[in-house]
Amino acid sequence: MHSELIEIRTGSEESVVDLTNAIERFLSESDAGDGLLNVFVPHATAGIAIIETGAGSDSDLLARLRELLPADDRWHHRHGSAGHGRDHVLPAFVPPSTTVPVLGGRPALGTWQSICLVDTNVDNPTRSVRLSLLPG
Fold first, then answer.
1. DSSP one-letter string for 45-95
2. What are the chain's domains?
3. d(CA 108, CA 31)
4. Could you tell me if 119 and 62 are in contact, meaning their C-beta atoms sit under 8 angstroms apart?
5. Please, which residues have CB within 8 angstroms of residue 126's CB and are 6 or more apart in sequence?
6. In this predicted structure, what is the pLDDT of residue 32?
7. What is the CA radius of gyration of the chain?
8. How many CB atoms lie within 10 A of CB 95?
């Protein structure tokens, strides 16, 4: 198994960050053939999604999450910025990991699919993402 921890700067706004290029670099440097790639974010307030980016889906996702998980005082978990408790519920809807097949050293994604970090926590501007390749 080959594994690497990468740092992603998300800043102070909710964000969807496309990790696909970083993942392709990781696979290239790993001399990957076929196998499984696990992408995991070791944070209680972020998740990993496979979605289309750049055509509005990323902003649509954040808008729906704001509707579903409003940043207000309804949450029992209270610390940090207002409504931060919702960030701790996010991983129940956008899980903290995904596994993708790797074929010929490349992630076997569909034409419009990207692997993305979803981060609604404005209190934590830097995230870690663990990439782990299990050779086939």
1. TEEEEEE--SSSHHHHHHHHHHHHS-SSTT-S---SSTTTHHHHHGGGTS-
2. 2-135 (2.60.120.460)
3. 16
4. no
5. 7, 8, 9, 10
6. 87
7. 15
8. 14
Dist. CA 69–CA 82, nearest whole Å: 12
> Using one digit for the tens of pLDDT, what is the confidence trace for 11-46?
889 999 999 999 999 999 998 899 999 999 999 999
CA dihedral 70, 72, 74, 78 (to 10 degrees): 120
Each residue's pLDDT tens digit, 96-123: 999 999 999 999 999 999 999 999 998 9
Whether the full predicted model's pTM is greater than 0.85, yes or no, is yes
Which phi and psi angles does 27 have, rounded to 5°?
-65, -40
What pLDDT, in 10s, does the model give residues 49-65? Answer: 999 998 999 999 999 99
